[in-house]
Design a protein that fits this description.
By secondary structure, the chain is mainly alpha-helical. The protein has 2 domains: about 210 residues, Citrate Synthase, domain 1 (Orthogonal Bundle), CATH 1.10.580.10; about 110 residues, Cytochrome p450-Terp, domain 2. Helices cover about 55% and strands about 5% of the residues. The protein has a 3-stranded antiparallel sheet. Bound molecules: carboxymethyl coenzyme *A. Carboxymethyl coenzyme *A (CMC) binds next to loops. It catalyses: oxaloacetate + acetyl-CoA + H2O = citrate + CoA + H(+). Belongs to the citrate synthase family. One of its GO terms (molecular function) is citrate synthase activity. This is Citrate synthase.
Length: about 400
């Protein structure tokens, strides 16, 4: 007390003790609950990883079946929410829609407002949020096309059901390719948690005031939207397309990013914590090559991305500052290959990050952490006498 340490951007301030995600930025290591991201991306499913993050251990067969079954009972979203949803302009940004819709769940499912929910009641809130989020994301996608929404089908697992609601048609049964289901699982797993980043810290700090889970997650979605955070995946593709349409002169754009008089940054490069290759980027780059090959897609934007990476990684500006490609650099190319429009990319990041946000919110509550309330160093005026308006 009395003495306040200033740490803008919390570059060196630990805000909590956590046992969810381990990250070593110098070595490029990422683990969820002790399991390496490489193993989880290769061998697990998104739902299993969600369970792991939220409850601390990989589920048994019975636990995962129960989890899937319960979620499938709560995938429907209150029909009255559609009236609210219908009011959004069809071209409004999907992230604004997502944040508002998730916050409005607190009005449609008000039992979540009680900060003293029992463990069973809180588990049900978690199940509802996981189930309804996938449905809401698919609604937003369908709206962008002007197509009717598709209702959830409980015979499918979590990710397959999401893809059905997204790419399915009312007029006919659509078969979703296994390659697509695998890629989606992998992408969601890689985004599932990343310790105390901007959106997760937001979720924890909002929840620390005893605010309900839905509103806390909605705040996290808003934090994720920014192009310096999750919004980078949209910004990367927009940048790559710009470079392509500008004649593909990668050097010119690298120089622009290095110019301190130019606010342009290479989107998808650099990270607050990783001073080495982002391990998620490595996995995504490989998955990107695989999926484009399997789907027989030749995306010229991928060539630009690879050239850009090569130039940036050998340029002293990027080497000295340890600016490596991050998770957002290649993910957009996969989302594009799967058929998602650019504006949906950050919404998909949010769907992946949801279990991490829930796990972090739950941990914060279980640790009985105090309300988050940073201090400041005041640098404003002191002791001014009020001057009547006619004398100013
Ligand atoms: N292009 C050009 N220069 C950069 C870049 C970049 N992408 N990123 C950092 N720098 C420079 C920056 O100008 C500064 O240079 P100097 O020391 O000469 O002033 C130095 O590198 C350190 O950068 P910083 O802004 O102090 O670092 P930070 O930890 O505050 O910011 C970051 C991290 C991720 C916001 C930043 O690297 C950035 O803006 N990257 C582009 C946006 C992006 O890809 N964001 C996604 C991050 S990963 C996923 C996620 O968080 O959701």
């Amino acid at each position: 007390t009395g003495f306040i340490t200033l740490d803008s951007g919390f570059k060196n301030t630990g805000a909590t003790k956590s046992s969810i995600t381990f990250l070593d930025g110098e070595k490029g290591i990422l683990k969820y609950r002790g399991y390496s991201i490489e193993q989880l991306a290769e061998k697990s499913t998104f739902l299993e990883v969600a369970y792991l993050l939220i409850y601390g251990n990989l589920p048994t067969q019975k636990q995962i079946e129960d989890f899937q079954h319960q979620i499938s009972r709560h995938t429907l979203v209150h029909e009255d929410m559609k009236k609210f949803f219908d009011g959004f302009p069809s071209k409004s940004h999907p992230m604004g829609q997502l944040s508002s819709l998730v916050c409005s769940l607190s009005s449609f499912y008000p039992e979540s407002l009680d900060p003293n929910q029992t463990k069973e009641e809180f588990d049900l809130t978690i199940i509802k949020l996981l189930g309804k989020m996938a449905t809401i994301v698919s609604w937003i996608y369908k709206k962008s096309l002007g197509h009717p929404v598709i209702y959830p089908k409980n015979k499918y697992d979590y990710v397959t059901n999401f893809l059905h609601m997204t790419f399915g048609q009312r007029t006919e049964e659509v078969e979703i390719d296994e390659v697509v289901i695998d890629a989606m699982n992998k992408l969601l797993i890689l985004h599932a948690d990343h310790e105390q980043n901007c959106s997760t810290s937001t979720v924890r700090i909002v929840g620390s005031s005893d605010c309900n889970l839905y509103a806390s997650i909605s705040a996290g979605i808003s934090a994720l939207w920014g192009p310096l955070h999750g919004g980078a995946n949209q910004a990367v593709i927009e940048m790559l397309e710009k470079i392509k349409n500008d004649g593909g002169d990668v050097d010119k754009w690298v120089n622009k990013a290095k110019d301190k008089n130019d606010s342009f940054r290479l989107m998808g490069f650099g990270h607050r914590v990783y001073k080495n290759f982002d391990p998620r980027a490595k996995i995504i780059k490989k998955a990107c090559d695989d999926i484009l090959e399997k789907l027989g897609i030749n995306d010229p934007v991928l060539d630009i991305a690879k050239k850009l990476e090569e130039v940036a990684l050998s340029d002293p500006y990027f080497v000295e500052r340890k600016l490596y490609p991050n998770v957002d650099f290649y993910s957009g190319i996969i989302y594009r290959a799967l058929g998602f429009p650019t504006e949906m990319f950050t919404v998909l990041f949010a769907l992946g990050r949801l279990p991490g946000w829930i796990a972090q919110w739950k941990e914060m509550r279980e640790n009985k952490e105090p309300i988050g309330r940073p201090r400041q160093v005041y640098v404003g005026e002191n002791d001014r006498d009020f001057v009547p308006i006619e004398k100013r």
